[in-house]
From TrEMBL:
Keyword check for Ion transport: no
A molecular function (GO) term: kinase activity
Signal peptide range: none
Pfam families: APH
Source superkingdom: Bacteria
Protein name, per record: Aminoglycoside phosphotransferase (APT) family kinase protein
Keyword field contains Kinase: yes
Sequence ranges assigned to domain Aminoglycoside phosphotransferase in this UniProt record: 43-270
Keywords: Kinase, Transferase
Length: 304
C-alpha cells in the first residue's frame, strides 16, 4: 500500500499504553493460519505510524497491524469504503485484499492491501510543487463532492474547533518551553475560536492528508493512502496538512479550491491543534513524528 521502503519510518517503540506488540514471527503465524499461500513470501518491516505497524509481504502486498484496539476498528471502515471510493477518485488509493481475524498471538483484526509503488513527497521526488498542490486540491475537491450520505463516519477533525478546546488547552500547557513561538501559536488558535462556525455542508474527509500519507511517482502526486481517519464533517481540518508542504504547494492548493480567509484561518488553527497535541503526546516515544509536528508549527509561524 504505501511507499518505497527507504522512505518508511521504522519504530518498534510502544506509542500507546494499551499497545499490542507485533513482530515478523507473529505476522508469519497469522499468514500461515489465514493465507498459507503467502506464508513463505519475503516479509520485512515497511514502516510504522501512530496507528499501525506495517510489513511488506513479497513484492505486491502490505500487511497492516493496528497498534491497539481503537485503531483496529478503523480497518473495518477501510474495508467497507475503499472499494466504493476507488472508482470515483482521481488518484490511486489502497486496495484491501484480505481481512485477518485475531489469534492467540495477536488479539486484534489485521489486514493485507495491494502494494502501491511510490515515495514520500519531497525535494527529490516532486518536480513541481505548485502542480502537486493543484493535484492534491483536485483529489480533495472530488472526495468532498462525493455523496456518501449513508455513512455514519465521525471524528473530531470533522467537528468544530471549540469542541476540541479542553484537550487542546492541556496540550499547550504540556508544550510549555518545548516549542518556539508557542505563545503566538496559542494566540492564532484562540483568534480562530472567535471566528464564525463553518456553515457549509458536511462532506467526506480523508482527515489526515499529511505527506506520509501521500505517494509521489514520476515527479508528481500519484496516490493517497491510509483512509483510517475517513469521516464526514466540516472541511476545515482537511486543509490543515498543507502546512506540511512547501509554500508553493500550499498556495496553489488554496487557489485551486478558492478557500476564503475565515476557512483558511480555521484550517491553520487545526494545523496548530494537531501539531501541538502531537508534540505533547509523542514527545518521549516517537521523535520522528514530533519532528514533523515541529516542522508544521514552524511553517505556520513563518507564513503568518
Amino acid at each position: 500500500m504505501p511507499r518505497t521502503e527507504h522512505a518508511a519510518k521504522i519504530t518498534t517503540v510502544a506509542l500507546h499504553e494499551d499497545e499490542i506488540p507485533v513482530d515478523e514471527p507473529v505476522i508469519r503465524s497469522l499468514l500461515a493460519r489465514d493465507r498459507p499461500e503467502w506464508a513463505g513470501l519475503p516479509l520485512r518491516r515497511a514502516g510504522a505510524g501512530t496507528d499501525n505497524t506495517m510489513f511488506r509481504l513479497g513484492d505486491e502486498l502490505l500487511v497492516r497491524a493496528p497498534r491497539n484496539a481503537y485503531n483496529a476498528g478503523m480497518l473495518a471502515k477501510e474495508r467497507t469504503w475503499l472499494p466504493r471510493l476507488a472508482p470515483l477518485l482521481p488518484l490511486a488509493i489502497p486496495e484491501p485484499v484480505h481481512h485477518g481475524s485475531p489469534s492467540d498471538a495477536y488479539p486484534l483484526p489485521w489486514a493485507v492491501y495491494r502494494w502501491i509503488d511510490g515515495a514520500e513527497p519531497g525535494p527529490d521526488t516532486v518536480d513541481d510543487w505548485a502542480a502537486f498542490g493543484r493535484d492534491l486540491a483536485g483529489f480533495v475537491r472530488t472526495l468532498h463532492g462525493l455523496d456518501i450520505s449513508d455513512a455514519t463516519l465521525t471524528g473530531y477533525r470533522g467537528g468544530l474547533l471549540r469542541d476540541a478546546g479542553a484537550w487542546v488547552d492541556r496540550s499547550f500547557a504540556a508544550c510549555a518551553g518545548l516549542i518556539p513561538g508557542l505563545g503566538t501559536l496559542e494566540r492564532m488558535w484562540r483568534d480562530a475560536l472567535a471566528l464564525p462556525d463553518p456553515t457549509g455542508p458536511r462532506v467526506p474527509l480523508h482527515a489526515d492528508l499529511k505527506p506520509t500519507n501521500l505517494l509521489a511517482r514520476d515527479g508528481a502526486l500519484h496516490a493517497v493512502i491510509d483512509f483510517a481517519g475517513l469521516i464526514v464533517g466540516h472541511p476545515d481540518a482537511e486543509h490543515a496538512t498543507t502546512w506540511d508542504l512547501p509554500a508553493e504547494a500550499r498556495e496553489a492548493y488554496r487557489a485551486a479550491l478558492d478557500i476564503d480567509d475565515e476557512t483558511w484561518q480555521r484550517a491553520r488553527a487545526w494545523a496548530i491543534v494537531v501539531g501541538v497535541s502531537g508534540v505533547a503526546y509523542y514527545r518521549n516515544t516517537f521523535p520522528e513524528f514530533v519532528a514533523e509536528c515541529r516542522a508544521r508549527l514552524a511553517a505556520v509561524l513563518a507564513a503568518s
